[in-house]
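2024-03-11 09:14:02 DEBUG pipeline.ingest accepted 1 chain
2024-03-11 09:14:02 DEBUG pipeline.ingest length=121
2024-03-11 09:14:03 DEBUG pipeline.predict start
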Amino acid sequence: MPEHGSVQYPGSYMAPVADRAAEQSYLELCKQLGTGPCQPFLQCLQQGSRACKLSEFDQEEQLYATATLLPYAGLQELDLSGLQLSLDGWVSMLDSCSKCQGLQVLSLKSCNLGFVGELIQ
């Protein structure tokens, strides 16, 4: 049985396909929150990509819209390296990552952990 977001052709590998329902839900949620979509995440939804790098969010609302739909993106690799978020932002993002069933690689190199980072130092 093909995994979410994939189509299997006879005698071939599982090729990614775009998830139009997730894409439309994401765009609608961004609109409701009064923000634009995070372009790298939107492109992953449109292309059915299994890997995504998120390096910044223009607004908190954009972060929360992305975090809400992240479990439905079918990602296997997510790179958050260099991302700078508030404590609430990290909680939302990592909570969403924990709900991604197919996520195999999560990169968090050189991230700014905000208030948490200050407590650690």
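2024-03-11 09:14:41 DEBUG pipeline.report The two ends are 48 Å apart (CA to CA).
2024-03-11 09:14:41 DEBUG pipeline.predict end
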